[in-house]
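Recall from the previous lesson that a structure prediction takes nothing but the amino acid sequence as input. Here we apply that procedure to Carbohydrate ABC transporter substrate-binding protein from Streptomyces sedi. The sequence below is the only information supplied.
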Amino acid sequence: MRGSGPSPGRRVKRATAAVVATTALALSACGSEEEGEAAHRDPTVELPDLNGESLEVGAVWTGAERDNFVRVAEEFERRTGASVTVVPSGDNVSQFVGTKIEGGAPPDVVMVPQPGVLREFADNGWIAPLGETTRAQLDANYTEGWQQLAAGGDGDLYGVYVKAANKSLVWYSSTAFDYAGVEAPDTWDAFVDTAWTVWESGTTPVSVAGGDGWTLTDWFENIYLSQAGPEMYDRLAAHEIPWTDESVTEALTTLGELFGEGRLLLGGQRGSLQTDFPTSVTNTFSNLTTPDAGMVFEADFVGSVITDNTDAEVGVDARVFPFPAVGAGDPPVVSAGDAAVAVAPDGEMSEAQEAFLTYLASTDAAAIWAEPGGFVSPNKSLEFDVYPNDVQRGIAEALIAAGDDFRFDMSDQTPAAFGGTTGQGMWQGLQNFLRAPQDIERAQEYLESQAADAYGH
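The prediction returns the following tokens.
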């Protein structure tokens, strides 16, 4: 996951994985015909009798995402006799857990979307290291890279990555591209040229969710990974080089080729800063005949927003291509995910907590979660036939084929104060940049100042 850059052979595998995922996403989804089949498969892990025990699990998920996780928890209840309650954590998981601990009533398990936050929790003594039964499931079902993402500063493993996402995708309106007479670009220069051609055809090229700072970090990270390379990406993520480094200047200059041209952004810079993520998607796909925007960038979960909030059909009205390669770099593959951790301020993990994490690390839980769709597991032992359609199977196959040959979301690896908090750090710094793309030096100075404070040096 971290360390030196990939060999040429591994670069081919990484690029191939992105293409496979993209091809799968371009297909039209079809629903599963047999609901509940995964729950009736033979168990692969033995769980203890926990009759009378209760667990509270905090997670950010809402709607269908929450409903699918509840199905997973219900099977754990059926097999153990325990009671599981799922509660909302909100976007700021660190604040949620800290407040609950101060109040003397922390959740038993919480889903953490940032490795940096997980490490903070471990350093604070808020969570307990994984037990032997959970570690056994990880060794059987997860590659070393996915395991080490959940390591604390002491080297111990503290979490189980239960969900994954591909954050290197650009979604586009087939209507806008057909009218402009353009095809999906594979390089950054071609991407910018395509944007101008779409603009000349009468459609604003890109809808940017600048109101949500996390989407801007994804823009930067994809450009930086491709342009500067994996080794520099790792060094910047660890703050081993400053945000005033020339490599950051080059990445922001490249991003400025888009963000600096107000005509290419729906609503210009000002309008982009007032646009949240769901709106950026509906801007692109709500109007099938005369779309407001031609493209929107974000992860595979864009497909769910399209399906839930528009009449567009993925693979027909809404298509997707990999984030383009920048300069001489490889096409980037940036991933993200959620890890389950046991909250234990006293340092002792209960039998119920360990059983739940062991269950989540097994194919038993992953199969139930994968069955309805809208979910991809990094569990390499999970059979692909549990996914409900070719779209989901293709994404899953690409993820597993890539192994550890990708980079995790940079902002998620940093301290929460820098990479995951509204109004400061990367989120605010890149919003500042979107507001004034010509002032790269000022944006870098702000980012470095914020990083130095967050990292403590």
